Amino acid sequence: MNMNNFHYIRKSPRRTDGELIVTGRARYTVDIDLPGMLYAKILKSPHAHARIRSINTGKAEELEGAKAVVTGRDIGNRRFSFIDTPAYPADQTPLAVDKVRFIGEGVAAVAAESEKAAEKALSLIEVDYEELPAVFDPEEAMKEGAPIIHEEITPNTTTAWEDFGIPRAKSRPYKAHHNISNRVFIEHGDIDKGFREADYVREDRFVIPSTAHAALEPHAAVADFQPTGKLDVWLSHMGFEHKRFWLAKLLGIPLSNVRIHKTYVGGAFGGKISLFAYEFLAAYLSMLTRRPVKTILTREEVFTTCPSARRMIVTLKTGVKKDGKITAQHVRIIDDVGAYRRSSPTALYLTHVFRNPIYDIPNIRHEGYGVYTNKIFTTAKRGHGLQQMIFAVESQLDMICDALELDRLEIRLKNLRKKGDVLPNGDTLRSYALPACLKTAAERIDWRRKTSHKKPNRGLGIGTASMFSGAHNFPFASAATVRLNHDGRVILYTGQTEFGIGVETVMAQIVAEVLRCPLKDIIVNAGDSEISPHDIGNWLSAGMFVSGEAVKRAAVDLKTQMLRYASEGLGIPDSDLEFENGWIISKSDDSRKCSFSDISRYGIQMAGGDPLIGKGFTKCVPEVYFWKGRYNKTASLTSGKGRFTEAYGLAAAMAEVEVDQETGKVRVIHLVVADDCGTPINIKSVEGQIVSQAVMGIGDVLFEEVRFEKGAVLNPNFLEYPIPTASDIPKIDSIIVDSYEPNGPFGAKEVGETSRAAAIAAVANAVCDAVGGRIFSLPFTTDRIKKALVAREKRKS
Amino acid sequence: MNLLPDFEYRRPKSLSGVLSALEESQGKAVLLAGGTDLIPRMKLGLEQPGWIIDIKDVENLRFITIEGENLTIGTLTSVHTVAKNTLIKTYFPTLHEAAVATASEIIQIRGTIGGNLLQETRCNRYNKSETWRHAFPPCLKTGGKACNVIKGARTCRSVYCGDLAPALLSLDASVVVATTQGEREIPLNEIFTGNGTSPFSLNKTDLVKMLKIPLRKTRGRYKKFRLRETIDYPILGIALSVDDAGRGYLVLGACGPRPLKYGFSTPEEAADIPRKAFEDMKPIDNMPLPPRYRKHLVRVFAERVLGEIIF
Questions:
Q1: Min Cα–Cα distance to chain B from A282, Å
Q2: Domain containing B10 — which CATH number?
Q3: Which residues of A are catalytic?
Q4: Do both A357 and A456 map to the same domain?
Q5: Taking burial as the number of CB atoms within 10 A of a residue's CB, which of A161, A227, A448, A535 is the most buried?
Q6: pLDDT tens digits for A584-613?
Q7: Do A676 and A755 share a domain, yes or no?
Q8: CA distances from A227 to A543, A708, A795 (A)
């Protein structure tokens, strides 16, 4: 394909919805106000672990303005989770039924005429708790005699995986031994042989805390249950399919009765994929009261009742030859899941499979344990498990270089996989520009000169990362339709959700590119569960690769239909016709042409009223299927077998920092991120992804940690939980390394999530380089850096 | 949304109107100027005043003028105005730098010098919502019997985080307080009690009307250590001002319930301050970074600021 021949992609058109957003006209969930609407509030547990003896709601019910008061016992054991499989059945209920497992867990909910009345009603609810011993440290929780957080969980319905038709054994009760919520064990090669072959082996332990998503829009939901049995909902989310599935399942109503309306979403970052208890409660209270119900969380509630990113302890044992070639790696991870398991089985598998394409490690063992603790549960955030692993692996590679006196760039180049490699599970690296990413970034930051002529107090660091372009999870495919309108404009229907990523613009660019019509002629109707065909959603980096391809195919389908009618209508063979700027023109005689509007008219007048609708669809991993006992290459979360994804995005980052030797304060001087994202459909959007993720990575290294005090989140606001401000952001170069992914739309694939992980490793390694010592826990707060500086001085003397 | 509690709201136009409203409220009133400290505290349920007396419309409280031997700054003067004032920049560089380093520009525009001075002390177990605080027993500052940070502590060591006070103290400023009984001038140093539960010695019916700074040219610097380059409260603030005769003050902020002030009239005396300050600072684990590290910072920054301005 001629890469320079594009008209609407590989360009940076203005966002089609930009004006709507910046003028405050884009409608977010908080903007939805319906007649007769009630406000819901949730009463939260002040105890990290306690049995609920009784709840007295009498006074709250009598309060004027209070319309409904519900407790966990009223709702019952309706269990939900992100992962709900026969082996790992859902363990969470919308409100605590018999006991609370973290500070902030909901115990009762109220719907009232005003927020004030709802708050007042909450204060009138009396809960009698029997406090239980709590455990906050995952390693403590695994010990004999630790408090037991979950009793045996017996599924009372089919699990979601059974509902989806994924072939597995029937669901069975789950009994957590030593508070272990889930496990993973993946092995390739011969780990013992790998270590025997090594000239140098080292083991290190890294601790990565929870960080917050810090989406600017607070979490909110509006639910309106109609007398017809229909439920209209507006949510702050990242794709409607999971939300709709779980709302229908928990409420016991047909899936099609739930309509998730399109909303704009003010940031998500992986944090808004799964159903939230408050979303169910808004819907449940609406069903009870037969009135619309709205709930908006405070920032503190977002921090204390909605999950932040995963807390992991990564122990890494690696063997290398003298020349730096890795022979074996043994990974052990403890995932401090908090009170509920949620997506830990996914995360522990992803810690391996996301980073799998980077280095060619012949012998590997990857084991992980999810462990319950009495803290808020955790979830995905921009590279679910990737950044935790990358921080560990890339930190340790630098330590290996120090020990063996190897060049930090060379050791990475030496161990990289190659384009065309087939991974142990069968995934093929059809596009793979990671070597080019490393080399380009090195040139941009002037790696060789700067590392050989090191300035005092300065340090340089490298990081790499890789990431799926979607995986085979529910609903396993995306589809799109495009419809030609009377005036020749085209309406695209897609289930993609706009939460800051510019998805409506890039999808319109794809349609415009196929049909060669002006971008303004594409109308995007996105993210409405009743109007959009099924869609994988905007997470696991699936949006562009999977849904973008479906959109492209829909446009191609429409184009084929239009071409046929144009050929019939003009009496010109279709081989002599081409699409150009909204016209279909004869190549041999450009005076013979028809407009898109003409084609619409032809469809109606001459082709039996044909509305001209194009349809496109694609599976996340086409090779995988399951149908009534027949199945192929289904991925296993616990053994790492089966196919994962069709394409990997890759990135390399390099950072230069300066460290104040007395205070430990870091100044990031320059950060370069080279991202292999395939064809950039919208260059500015891609750069935005890269830069924003680099900034997030700086926050991860220097500032961010959700801190706890006896199970309570100690910094549940943006004053105490610092994210980088504009003043903290250095010069960031984003470099697009276009590798052309043959299976992606116009060669596009994942972008963004890799940039964060690569930036984390680069900045962390640069700080350690400047310090002359290693820091094993994120974030690198100034006191930790100072401690490392003191340790270095001690070593010297 | 954190909802504000109900309150009586008054918005007098004159100083006498404020004073009579204060008296009428019988100690139930708080004064509202920029609101950048008060409103978040009310939303967290830390302050539940029966009355709010909004003084934004009160005449003649926004000024920076020379009065005899002093520069006077009206209490409603915004932090941003202080930061932009050229006289202040020339005569009192420390105050200028402290104003620039306060919060962020948007908050500087909203916040007043009087409000900034009288901001409440802070603690990471205290500045939280009512719901959050339910997970712990009430602390000394919320009327309880024990501190939630230090077991057995008898006094509250919540931290005074103002940026302007250390600078003003280094300039030997005083405050003019208006009451129904008339006006009185108090050295700024004396308005701090050193007790975190009630950090100011002023009465509930007192209004800080203006600040007075002896008008003489100084050299100086305000060094602020914070996590990020903007918005944040200081982890440590150090103000140093020196006059032409080499006399001056070094003042620590964010080191405890009150700023710590050290005077010197010779370089030798000044050189000994970092050691003294290091010994005097007794931080506890109630701020973003650990106490030992914050103590370490005192010496580093005291030495640096003295090195830059004096030695």
A1: 16
A2: 3.30.43.10
A3: 753
A4: yes
A5: A535
A6: 999 999 999 999 999 999 999 999 999 999
A7: yes
A8: 35, 45, 74
